Prior knowledge:
about 500 residues; alpha+beta; 9 helices; 8-stranded mixed β-sheet; about 35% helix; Methane Monooxygenase Hydroxylase, Chain G, domain 1; Acetylcholine Binding Protein, Chain: A; 5-stranded antiparallel β-sheet
Amino acid sequence: xxxxxxxxxxxxxxxxxxxxxxxxxxxxxxxxxxxxxxxxxxxxxxxxxxxxxxxxxxxxxxxxxxxxxxxxxxxxxxxxxxxxxxxxxxxxxxxxxxxxxxxxxxxxxxxxxxxxxxxxxxxxxxxxxxxxxxxxxxxxxxxxxxxxxxxxxxxxxxxxxxxxxxxxxxxxxxxxxxxxxxxxxxxxxxxxxxxxxxxxxxxxxxxxxxxxxxxxxxxxxxxxxxxxxxxxxxxxxxxxxxxxxxxxxxxxxxxxxxxxxxxxxxxxxxxxxxxxxxxxxxxxxxxxxxxxxxxxxxxxxxxxxxxxxxxxxxxxxxxxxxxxxxxxxxxxxxxxxxxxxxxxxxxxxxxxxxxxxxxxxxxxxxxxxxxxxxxxxxxxxxxxxxxxxxxxxxxxxxxxxxxxxxxxxxxxxxxxxxxxxxxxxxxxxxxxxxxxxxxxxxxxxxxxxxxxxxxxxxxxxxxxxxxxxxxxxxxxxxxxxxxxxxxxxxxxxxx
Length: 495
């Protein structure tokens, strides 16, 4: 009886042990349980139960994990000078090795020449395996592009190499310098480093061949991108994350943008140059057209101010002087100088007594009549022996109403320097007025007589005549100095 009880006890014990063994083998591990809950049962064949994605992959001799980066720049747009940033569309490729994955149950595709077999998996695989944590230190935002699907994938090779590919859209900040604007050259950097790991744990490197590629069809609106670009590795002990003094390995990509001058040449330099030239027309208007002259100069100054205000709206309010500020100041100074020249000429004209101004105005009209009569005399002399009855009446039909009487016509030899007497002033008054024309020692003479031609000269009129030549020559001299210095400093890379 005792023997039967012992056999029964042993049988029950064996059944309990067998049930416990079956329960242990059928119960999934936590990693596989999470995978099955998400419906991605395929990953259970790749990720072992002992896999911990928070730990970096093991390496030989505890060396840092080598992560190789490749960039393909698809587009650069939204270059914002006011915010000092630009937007970049790029493809980011990262490659590393993780020997913890189980690849025995995978069916690989044959690779190209000199490439291992591979299999491409969706982006959700990145949630269950270890991936590098790069971040751009000077990026204002970054996101993986998504349309109908997330543009990201994982490629696993049969030698445990993992390749992650993603299309990113990021706004990169750039510390711009506008000393040479609008012919400036902006040098911007894109800096990547690991957010959590030091260079002793994870080491970032550029691919040895073609680490950075650019879209051949890329065209920028206002800039030209220098190609090839410079990329290098920078080691530093500075850590802005607050970890203390630790080794930081950074991947640096240098981008050099040179601003195209064509847009500003058409929209800035040529219109401002024409406005300055328009202000010079006031020198030909004379003092009789005071409203028109003032309106022309003031309108030119306001037009130039409005033009440069629109240009500065797209620039940050920097504290230093830009090249466009020098051009703006030069154009405004020339227009303001033309306005000041008119004020001076008007002031010199107003210094004369009213009677003297009326006498000078009559003199100018008579002087013009003398020139016209001289021309007619030359035409009469060219007629020769032809009948002069009709020709003479036609050429001498000059009647002017002045002082209530008719102007009398007088035959004058054109080559004679003597001026005919057109008015009825007494000889004493003419002698007194002629004496006033000469310069008084120690005082500025407002009018004088040219000793060679005998023509009466007025200081304000001579200033207008000189300004017609001096102002264009001075502005030409300003441009000869401005543009060569600006171009030289741009090519030298100076500020």
